[in-house]
Amino acid sequence: MTEHTPGPWSAEYVGADGSFEIWNVAKGDRAHKDSFAICSRNPIEHRAEVSRANARLIAVAPDLLAVAELARIALKNRDQTPGEANILAALKLVIAKATGG
């Protein structure tokens, strides 16, 4: 399993550079921020809303993974209805996809 950079992450609009809108996705608070990803868009191909949505999704990924892991543990430790068993299976798949497991 590949370890990811733990959160919190943030997505912050940096500005425009020619035909690209630049978003900085970073780990840490404002005082101790380590930038590790840049999201940009070409306005001819994408709307600005797509860039904002992508940056927010990348920034919240560690939180979504943590919630998925908590939900998997909660469902695993009880008798599941058929619907919950399907949710548990889906959680296992998405966690494996996110962690490379």
Explain the layout of strands and helices:
Elements: E1 9-17, E2 20-27, E3 34-41, H1 48-76, H2 82-99
Antiparallel strand pairs: 1-2, 2-3
Describe this structure in words.
There is one protein chain. Helices cover 47% and strands 25% of the residues. It has helices at 48-76, 82-99; strands at residues 9-17, 20-27, 34-41. Helix 1 packs across helix 2. The chain has one domain. It is α+β, with helices and mostly antiparallel strands. Strand 2 and strand 3 (34-41) form a beta hairpin. The longest helix has 29 residues, at 48-76. The chain is built from 2 helices and 3 strands. A 3-stranded antiparallel beta sheet has the order 1-2-3, with helices on one face.
| Domain count | 1
So how many helices? 2
Indicate the low-confidence ranges by residue numbers: none
| Basic shape | elongated
**Total strands:** 3
Mean pLDDT: 79
Largest sheet data: 3 strands, antiparallel
Could you tell me the radius of gyration in angstroms? 17 Å
Strands of the biggest beta sheet: in what spatial order? 1-2-3
Question: For the terminal residues, how far apart are their CA atoms?
Answer: 5 Å
How much strand content do the residues show?
15-25%
Order of helices and strands: EEEHH
Q: Helix- and strand-based class?
A: alpha+beta
Indicate the percent of residues in helices: 40-55%
